[in-house]
Amino acid sequence: MNRPLFSSCLLAILTLSHADLSWPQPTIAPADSAVAEAESLAHLPVKVPIPPAVTPAFTVAIYDDVHLSPRVLADAQDEATRVYQKAGVAIIWIRCKSSKMDAEPDLRCQDPPSAMRLNLRIVPHARKSSDGVFGVAFLSAEGTGAYSDVFYDSVEKLDRDWNVGLVRVLGHVMAHELGHLLLGSNAHSRQGIMCPSWHGDELHLASMGALLFSQEQGRFMRERLASYGKADPKAKPDPAIKILVYNIAQAPRAVLAEAEREAGRILSKAGVQVSWIECSAGHSDAEVKEICQNGWGPINIGLRILVLPTVFHNRFQGDPLGFAISPALASVYYDHRLRFVADDVGLGLPRILGCFIAHEVGHLMLGSNSHSHQGLMQAGWGETQIHQALAGDLLFTSNQAKLIQTEARTRMSLQTGS
Ligand SMILES: [Zn+2]
Ligand SMILES: [Zn+2]
Rounded to an integer, what distance in angstroms lies between the CA atom of residue 288 and that of residue 277? Predict the structure, then answer.
């Protein structure tokens, strides 16, 4: 290309009627019948009482789809609890409804997941072949997340291969996946419990109770949990939206994760929190799966990451960022050439992609004619806008922020009200 990439950037907004689009309408799950299971709280790890004011704590709702014996599960929980105790962090466990149970055994299971109230599900196996992977954690825009899975067949295989005891392996794998949720993106380390793949060395350490978080990881988790704990409990929570991500262009995972983080940051500055649900890969977490199956629509937003089609060059004579189909489908073009705009090493690409995503989502939240002369919703992006984007200053205007919050609350009310 011999011209600046963004000089004549053009965005196309298509508004189609419902009849033209066939996205699945969200369905409401049937109410659970009220049968309680008794064994849930008996195995809470209470060995070492910790004063809550001193030790930051988080809650884990555990879902056992494998139907382990209560003893095995409780011992694995103890093992994970011990790993976190060494890092100065306490866990409060809640046993929640597995696929076999008819009703929630614990009322607290109905609390919405959050950065301090995590979900951990033990599933029989990964939905896709996942060599050497023993679980998965789903991270949100801000590098936090609330959902993680442990693949039980991988845990069994690790135990078979290295013979250190099933409970021990399971407890450590649980601690590892929860670690992803607490540490945020790029949580893997060369050593210790956040090592990405485990072999004899790691399992030998685990058998001695020495496969742990590093001091730095421990400090990070404590500070993060303490900062969540300080949030004003009376403050009205921001409205939240879910964005279902379809990475059709197969943009690198790390780039996309950072782009989502940037878009999430921009939207959170406008007063709306975003959960990113990766729908292109298979999921074993039943909740995530259900969200993906229900698809985008009046409540949730769909986001497609597409390959930039060459035909657009001719048609629009520019480089479109993407387009939005009201009310719920945003599409953004992933183009690795974007990295040449800002720098040689490609640091700018995720940030710019994040701005594109926020812009297209903005169209869905703001309705038609939502371009403005200032800020993120400008139609044409030149060098000024790209510089602002890289500086993190390309944001929604305060008027737009109010409209976006209202729209997010409307979408939330559709979810809870019907
Ligand atoms: Zn990992
Ligand atoms: Zn636009």
Answer: 7
